[in-house]
């Protein structure tokens, strides 16, 4: 058979119009058949009607400044009364936290940003350490800022550690980003010790660290914040405290429960499985009611456990159990060969889990983890049912305020938008992370 | 304790090079549920010996070598590796695993770590060697498997043959006394098989004790001291390679050889 050879090259041509122009795109996607065209037109009309109604009520005819609901009505009878929402804004955010002390809450939030921001800076090392300290140190430091009052010795130590870590970490990051070196290196150099032996360098650093601890410890003994009872906490602040602690506790708790559920030891396995299944088969609201009624029964006499603590414990256990199932699913995605390879280079159980399996599994789990965080943030609003004034509680109490009596719609709508923005941003971010991580995977 | 030490010194005194026994199977039996995978296996491997194991699929070759580092547990008989009996004693198992390297058909590199991190993980975390030294040693082994330039890539960015060579280097970084290979080339494209086999031949030249499950008969002929044929959980026949291939004794061996040679 004679060879068939193509004699001419085919020049590249531009794509057909339907692929490139707006009109072409519309034609192809929205009006490709008469039924598609009809659907398009009907949908456009529905969207138009809804948006227009909302626009007229919520923007065009709305009242932004007024001193009470009556004045709103006087200005515009069928527009939204955003004035009430605006006036209550501080209540939505802080609840009944004393107005003179709000800076403590703000500072606490700022510290969290400072603490966690380095996690997103590419050149920063030791991200695991930063992450761990966010879970194990920050809550105590922030907790003291929020609650105030006399510090017990434990709290003094945690506050000291927290401050030293925060300052050290922030300096480290600033130096790292500006000069590409670590805080440690710079200190060694400033002290002229760069030629000293490793051991003497290490001792110097240790001495500086201990010195800083002592100084901060002495300083912090001099100040105490005015105590703010938890009953004054509220609004978005309270929602974030509860769900934040729930989220921070969920991951470590979930990992241990999931490992326990896969354990070879029957007692541990059965206990973990029962624990997980019980919490997962009960709605959060039930867990919350149980917590507030049952914990006091279990607690020894004289251990006061306020409602907020009970709620936080309940939320932690609940979210931990959900996280355990997420972690378990992630673990199942890791092929057996990874365990075997880890064993053959001599790693034991914890080494295999911590160095090989968990880092890979966590990567798979990120979308689900963020998903359950979003769920938890929303579920936390249930605490308003058992009498805590979280953001939902505050949104609903607007209508009981005398000047704004009966104002339901606007605050709730505002709350819905607030949650939508936060949750939507989180889910978008998790999507972005997922894409980024799987690009690095190259498998 | 002393008796073990005595034994050790005795064998060392008695042994010139290859008469020292490093692996011994004595009447080893294993079942998966009701299925009898290993039947009365007796096997003695001397230090520096290179054994190639072949046999039809499902005959228990993988199971046999996975018993050596206790990735699989046997139920009857005794296995002694490097003068340690494999039993429930976890200390022994950890020790033996750090002395026995293993290379898998599917490479099993750690995909979230770079090549150099794959290599230094064991030395740093198990052997507690300082990072710098571990890196130096790892680079040496990477050079030995001829891919030093890939050190900072991730496994997913390498070809199959390169990944398998990394896997070999990863095992070597632990300074093992014994290397086990479970069909190291059967997941590879033909053009990559040679590069892996070359590395294995070089490794054999260093005097490493090796047990290789493989159907690469060319490799068996040039490298093996002994070829073993397994079928249905038994070691049916073993011999030095020339005799094994040219004068197989058992009918099952003859049948098997004729099948793989006529592929
Ligand atoms: N975990 C297990 N549970 C139950 N049966 C198993 C298990 N692993 C292996 N087997 C069975 O044991 C037998 C021997 O398996 P093994 O993997 O040792 O064979 P092999 O000789 O390595 O075969 P191949 O050439 O296909 O790798 C096979 O029949 C297999 O189905
Ligand atoms: Mg096999």
- Our Rg estimate of chain A from Cα atoms comes to 29 Å
The percent of residues in helical segments of chain A reads: over 70%
Order of helices and strands of chain B: HEEEHEEHEHHHEHEHEEHH
Instruction: Say what the CATH topology of the largest domain in chain A is.
Output: MetI-like fold
For the record, the CATH class of the largest domain in chain A is Mainly Alpha
Write the CATH architecture name of the largest domain in chain A. Answer: Orthogonal Bundle
Overall pLDDT confidence of chain A: 86
What is the first-to-last residue Cα distance of chain A? 43 Å
- Average of per-residue pLDDT values of chain B: 88
The major sheet of chain B is characterized as: 6 strands, mixed
Helix count of chain B equals 10
CATH superfamily label of the largest domain in chain A: MetI-like
**Helix-strand makeup class of chain A:** mainly alpha
Task: State the share of residues found in helices of chain B, binned by percent.
Answer: 40-55%
**Portion in strands of chain A:** under 5%
Radius of gyration of chain B, in Å, reads 19 Å
The low-pLDDT segments of chain B are 1-17
Summarize this structure as a short list of keywords or feature phrases.
heterodimer; A: 443 residues; mainly alpha; MetI-like fold; 3 domains; 0% strand; B: 263 residues; alpha/beta; 6-stranded mixed β-sheet; 4-stranded antiparallel β-sheet; 10 helices; 10 strands; 24% strand; globular; disordered N terminus; binds adenosine-5'-triphosphate; binds magnesium ion
In short:
Chain A has 443 residues and is mainly α.
């Amino acid at each position: 058979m004679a060879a068939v050879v193509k004699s001419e090259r085919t020049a590249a041509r531009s794509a057909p119009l339907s692929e490139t122009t707006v009109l072409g795109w519309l034609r192809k996607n929205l009006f490709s058949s008469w039924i598609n065209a009809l659907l398009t037109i009907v949908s456009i009309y529905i969207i138009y009607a809804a948006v227009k109604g909302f626009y007229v009520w919520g923007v065009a005819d709305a009242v932004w400044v007024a001193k009470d609901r009556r004045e709103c009505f006087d200005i515009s009878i069928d527009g939204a009364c955003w004035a009430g929402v605006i006036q209550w804004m501080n209540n939505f955010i802080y609840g009944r936290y004393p107005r003179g002390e709000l800076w403590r809450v703000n500072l606490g939030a700022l510290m969290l940003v400072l603490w966690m921001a380095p996690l997103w800076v590419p050149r920063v090392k030791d991200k695991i350490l930063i992450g761990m300290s966010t879970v194990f140190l920050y809550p105590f430091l922030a907790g003291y800022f929020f609650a105030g009052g006399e510090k017990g010795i434990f709290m003094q130590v945690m506050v000291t550690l927290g401050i030293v870590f925060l300052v050290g970490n922030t300096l480290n990051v600033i130096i790292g980003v500006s000069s590409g070196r670590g805080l440690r290196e710079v200190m060694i150099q400033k002290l002229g010790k760069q030629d000293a032996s490793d051991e003497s360098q290490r001792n110097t650093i240790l001495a500086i660290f201990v010195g800083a601890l002592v100084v901060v410890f002495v300083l912090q003994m001099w100040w105490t914040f005015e105590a703010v009872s938890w009953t004054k906490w509220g609004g978005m602040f309270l929602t974030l405290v509860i769900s934040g602690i729930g989220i921070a506790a969920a991951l470590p708790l979930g990992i241990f429960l999931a490992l326990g559920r896969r354990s070879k030891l029957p007692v541990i396995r059965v206990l973990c499985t029962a624990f997980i299944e019980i919490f997962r088969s009960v709605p959060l609201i039930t867990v919350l009611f149980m917590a507030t009624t049952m914990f006091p029964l279990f607690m020894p006499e004289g251990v006061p456990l306020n409602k907020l603590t009970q709620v936080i414990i309940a939320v932690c256990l609940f979210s931990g159990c959900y996280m355990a199932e997420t972690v378990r699913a992630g673990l199942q995605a890791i092929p057996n060969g990874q365990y075997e390879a880890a064993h053959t280079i001599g790693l034991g159980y914890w080494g295999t889990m911590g160095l090989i399996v968990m880092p890979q599994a966590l990567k798979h789990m990120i979308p689900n983890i963020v998903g359950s965080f979003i769920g938890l943030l929303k579920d936390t609003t249930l605490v308003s049912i058992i009498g805590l004034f979280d953001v939902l509680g505050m949104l609903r109490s607007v209508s009981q305020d005398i000047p704004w009596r009966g104002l339901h719609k606007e605050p709730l709508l505002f709350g819905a938008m607030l949650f939508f923005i936060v949750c939507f941003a989180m889910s978008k971010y998790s999507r972005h992370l997922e894409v980024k991580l799987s690009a690095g995977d190259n498998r | 304790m002393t008796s073990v030490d005595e034994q050790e010194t005795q064998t060392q005194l008695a042994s010139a090079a290859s008469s020292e026994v490093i692996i011994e199977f004595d009447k080893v039996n294993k079942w998966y549920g009701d299925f009898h995978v290993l039947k009365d296996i007796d096997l003695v491997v001397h230090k520096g010996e290179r054994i190639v194991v072949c046999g039809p699929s499902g005959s228990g070759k993988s199971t046999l070598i996975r018993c050596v580092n206790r990735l699989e547990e046997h139920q009857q008989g005794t296995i002694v590796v490097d003068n340690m009996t494999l039993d429930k004693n976890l200390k022994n198992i950890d020790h033996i695993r750090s002395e026995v390297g293993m290379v898998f058909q599917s490479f099993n590199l750690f995909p979230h770590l770079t090549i150099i991190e794959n290599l230094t993980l064991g030395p740093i975390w198990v052997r507690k060697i300082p990072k710098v030294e571990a890196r130096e040693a790892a680079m040496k082994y990477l050079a030995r498997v001829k891919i030093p330039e890939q050190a900072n890539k991730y496994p997913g960015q390498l070809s199959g043959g390169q990944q398998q060579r990394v896997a070999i280097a990863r095992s070597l970084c632990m300074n093992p006394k014994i290397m086990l290979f479970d069909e190291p080339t059967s997941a590879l494209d033909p053009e990559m098989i040679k590069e892996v086999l070359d590395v294995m031949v070089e490794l054999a030249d260093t005097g490493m004790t090796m047990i290789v499950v493989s159907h690469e008969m060319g490799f068996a002929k040039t490298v093996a001291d002994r070829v073993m044929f397994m079928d249905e959980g038994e070691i049916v026949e073993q011999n030095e390679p020339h005799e094994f291939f040219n004068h197989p004794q058992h009918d099952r061996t003859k049948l098997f050889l004729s099948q793989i040679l006529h592929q």
